[in-house]
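Structure ticket #2291
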Amino acid sequence: MPMAMFTFLEHFELSGKRILPFCTNEGSGMGSSERDLKKVCQGAKVESGLSIHGAEAANSRSKVEAWVRKLV
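Resolution: structure written out below.
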């Protein structure tokens, strides 16, 4: 996760919130993002994330919609 995200998240109280992480990547998948989110967002429920390969991002709408429907 980029350092800018850590800085952003550290400024908010997210206890009791639900976090649906998603990212694009070029092969690393979610990496340690879910674990890092759980550390920085203490008390929030961090769901399993969605990782989309960068080359597939432009055509990923149906994949994103299916992921969101499954979680909400």
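Closing remark: Strands lie at 18-19, 22-25, 45-46, 50-53.
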